């Protein structure tokens, strides 16, 4: 009886959460995505994220990885080109090799490293900016926020030798490696983003002209 009640309640809950069924890779990932989506709103998630530099020796469940990447694939991209590609590194020997690409000790201890790459024609947008770097960055932000919403930690690593990563993962020339991400369960709680030093809103947001005061 209890199980039946839970089933009916979950069905109702899912209906309330809208029609997301075509956005995720598997029914299980779909369920989890909806569940976590329900638990934490986007502002909580943004406020709680921080760069985690110390990890528990605990495996990240494959379903959680699937849910994270279900969120990643929804990121916007220039011309919807979706040039991002990701290599998830869970094999301990490979992790060790990739960790050598950067000087960060936490890369050696996190259970998952993600290499954020691109399959790109290096198109320059009319704005003069390279499209793939912007697109990959947005996708990574989706990744870090989805991970936070599931109680996982991440740290973006930009300081690494791409040659070492390329060699370890057999990534051919011409496919840029834009970033490494550490991913896993945090071993200690540090200050979340909301408590960290950030520029003042009025120093970064202007209204109706450069450096004109934002009245918000
Ligand atoms: C493009 C980029 C590159 C970064 N590279 C590194 C890095 O190589 N090593 C590191 O420990 N943190 C790195 N970080 C994390 C930043 O230091 C961190 O986001 C910043 O200090 C703000 O702290 P928070 O993420 O905890 O809010 C990087 C972040 C970004 C966005």
Secondary-structure element pattern, one letter each? HHHHEHHEHEHEH
> Which structural category fits the helices and strands?
alpha+beta
Overall pLDDT metric: 88
CATH superfamily: NADH Oxidase
The end-to-end span amounts to 52 Å
Strand order of the largest sheet: 1-2-4-3
Helix percent band: 40-55%
Rg calculated over all Cα atoms: 19 Å
Beta-strand percentage?
Answer: 5-15%
Regions with little confidence, pLDDT below 50 for 5+ residues: 4-24
CATH class: Alpha Beta
CATH topology label: NADH Oxidase
Distinct helical segment count: 9
Tell me the domain tally: 1
CATH architecture grouping: 3-Layer(aba) Sandwich
How is the biggest beta sheet arranged? 4 strands, antiparallel
Descriptive tags:
9 helices; single chain; 216 residues; globular; NADH Oxidase; 4 strands; alpha+beta; binds flavin mononucleotide
What do these coordinates show?
The protein is an alpha+beta fold and 216 residues long. It has a single domain, classed as NADH Oxidase. The chain is 41% helix and 12% strand. The chain is built from nine helices and four strands. A four-stranded antiparallel sheet has the order 1-2-4-3, sandwiched between helices. It is globular.
């Amino acid at each position: 009886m209890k199980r039946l009640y839970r089933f009916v309640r979950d069905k109702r809950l899912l209906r309330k959460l809208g029609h997301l069924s075509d956005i995720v890779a598997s029914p299980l990932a779909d369920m989890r995505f909806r569940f976590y989506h329900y638990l934490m709103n986007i502002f909580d998630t943004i406020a709680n994220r921080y760069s985690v530099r110390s990890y528990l020796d605990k495996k990240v469940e494959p379903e959680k990885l699937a849910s994270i990447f279900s969120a990643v694939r929804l990121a916007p991209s220039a011309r919807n080109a979706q040039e991002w590609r990701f290599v998830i590194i869970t094999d301990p020997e490979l992790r060790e090799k990739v960790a050598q690409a950067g000087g960060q000790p936490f890369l050696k201890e996190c259970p998952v490293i993600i290499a954020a790459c691109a399959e790109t024609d290096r198109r320059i947008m009319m704005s003069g900016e390279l499209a793939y770097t912007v697109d990959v960055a947005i996708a990574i932000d989706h990744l870090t926020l989805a991970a936070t919403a599931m109680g996982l930690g991440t740290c973006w690593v930009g300081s690494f030798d791409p040659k070492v990563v390329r060699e370890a993962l057999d990534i051919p020339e011409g496919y840029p490696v834009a970033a490494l991400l550490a991913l896993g369960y945090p071993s200690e709680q540090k200050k979340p983003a909301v408590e960290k030093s950030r520029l003042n809103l009025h120093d970064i947001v202007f209204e109706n002209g450069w450096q004109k005061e934002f009245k918000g």
